[in-house]
């Protein structure tokens, strides 16, 4: 990092912005740097992000060569990067044990499994067989508490095997997980794979909107289009800086592009918007698609739409609780798991947190729309995320009695697990003249936050840590 300071990147904001643009294009990993940081701290965050991405430090050196060719600073960075060791995540003896099961084996999902295991950090090469793919992944490191990519790959491949091969492969992954003390992580991976099989052919388009961190009216928009139901995460698409007034047009382009790519598929599709707190109240479900046709229509007529939290996705200290509550929701999707928040719950500090600590609750109905800025010590949204609740519902104007009726109608009969699809049907009903026991227009502005922890993407850690700020939000919001 000191080398970057000596090269002048701490002194010139425009040069830092140019470097960020080159890194985003080369890393193919979306990230934004908070403008609340000092110039030196921004450089520290840039180096940290590169260090967490495979080949990220080498890419940083290449960008520095592009911007400072032939300089002593570039030579020093190149020397430091070349000296970094490659961690051997699997002992040679264990690799040899595995080789006889993978050598010569070429399942149909070989490339997809390798790409998923590598977290799409780089396009995988063409592999001769599963053993070649394993050897490629054996040099990839994992963050503390995460499964090594090579182990993930073997588990993914095992799902495609006959029992005679699946058994030994799973015995191997079980042994490796015990050795690394990652039994829980392996169980979570298997639960995610089982859930994918239950969902069948459903595809997702995830659109992530991050504050740029340099200009207040600009956002970094990235998308992940799922072309295979059992593949997550898919490769990240292009990341584009978009002004706030142009967000709807850009989303329209992404949806149209996705539909063209899916033209040969007969599958249901879900749209997910991962948004910063300051944008959670924007009615993205009413944004239009095919705007250039002259006859646009709102997204909710075609797709189930959910919003997700950018801050929660980047706050890994909450992910364990989040996964626990999600598992509980999938196991028991009943109305009895829904908590209806009242204003008095936040009058006394810690009261709502104590209520939500009860494992009974997996969803909460907020008493009001969450403000763009958090309310330290009294914030419903922050408290729900910290407790791990994966599902939240709110409305900008409907009273508590109306919301209780609406939610009971949506999730009654153990249908909480179908909340996104049920909400879409109800929004469509506004235009179909169907009869319901309440004002159906309430669905026009109903917000459903539905956060599935099995669909995560790497976004870096540049979003401010909400646990250090008493809540989270874009500090520029008004």
From TrEMBL:
It comes from Amycolatopsis vancoresmycina DSM 44592. This is Uncharacterized protein. Residues 91-191 form the vWA-MoxR associated protein middle region domain. Residues 217-453 form the vWA-MoxR associated protein C-terminal domain. Pfam families: EAD2, VMAP-C, VMAP-M0. Residues 1-81 form the Effector-associated domain.
């Amino acid at each position: 990092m000191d080398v970057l300071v000596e090269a002048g990147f701490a002194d010139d904001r425009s040069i830092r912005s140019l470097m960020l643009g080159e890194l985003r294009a080369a890393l193919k990993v979306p990230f934004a740097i908070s403008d609340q940081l000092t110039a030196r701290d921004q450089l520290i965050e840039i180096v940290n992000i590169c260090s967490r991405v495979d080949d990220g430090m080498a890419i940083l050196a290449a960008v520095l060569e592009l911007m400072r060719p032939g300089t002593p600073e570039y030579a020093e960075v190149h020397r430091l990067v070349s000296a970094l060791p490659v961690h051997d995540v699997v002992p040679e003896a264990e690799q040899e044990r595995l080789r006889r099961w993978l050598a010569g084996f070429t399942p149909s999902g070989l490339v997809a499994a390798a790409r998923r295991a590598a977290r799409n950090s780089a396009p995988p090469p063409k592999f001769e067989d599963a053993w070649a793919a394993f050897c490629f992944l054996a040099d990839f490191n994992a963050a503390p508490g995460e499964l090594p990519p090579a182990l993930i790959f073997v588990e993914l491949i095992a799902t495609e095997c006959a029992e005679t091969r699946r058994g030994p492969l799973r015995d191997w992954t079980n042994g490796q997980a015990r050795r690394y003390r990652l039994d829980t992580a392996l169980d979570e991976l298997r639960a995610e794979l089982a859930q994918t099989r239950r969902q069948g052919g459903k595809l997702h388009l995830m659109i992530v909107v991050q504050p740029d961190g340099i200009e207040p009216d600009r956002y970094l928009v990235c998308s992940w289009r799922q072309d295979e139901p059992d593949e997550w995460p898919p490769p990240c698409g292009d990341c584009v800086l978009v002004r706030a007034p142009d967000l709807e047009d850009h989303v329209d382009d992404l949806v149209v592009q996705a539909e063209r790519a899916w033209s040969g598929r007969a599958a249901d599709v879900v749209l997910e918007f991962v948004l910063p707190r300051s944008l959670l109240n924007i009615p993205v479900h009413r944004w239009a698609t095919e705007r250039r046709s002259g006859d646009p229509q709102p997204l909710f007529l075609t797709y189930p739409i959910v919003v997700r939290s950018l801050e929660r996705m980047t706050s890994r200290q909450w992910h364990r609780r989040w996964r626990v509550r999600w598992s509980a929701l999938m196991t028991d999707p009943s109305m009895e798991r829904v908590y209806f928040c009242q204003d008095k719950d936040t009058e006394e500090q810690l009261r709502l947190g104590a209520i939500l600590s009860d494992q009974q609750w997996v969803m909460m109905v907020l008493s009001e729309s969450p403000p763009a800025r958090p309310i330290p010590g009294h914030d419903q949204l922050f408290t729900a995320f910290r407790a791990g609740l994966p599902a939240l519902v709110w409305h900008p104007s409907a009273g508590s009695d109306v919301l209780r009726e609406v939610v009971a109608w949506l999730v009654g009969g153990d249908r909480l697990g179908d909340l996104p699809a049920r909400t879409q049907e109800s929004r469509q009903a506004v235009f179909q003249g169907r009869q319901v026991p309440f004002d159906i227009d309430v669905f026009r502005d109903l917000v459903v936050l539905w956060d599935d922890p099995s669909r995560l993407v790497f976004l870096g850690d540049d979003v401010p840590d909400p646990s250090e700020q008493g809540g989270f939000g874009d500090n520029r919001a008004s």
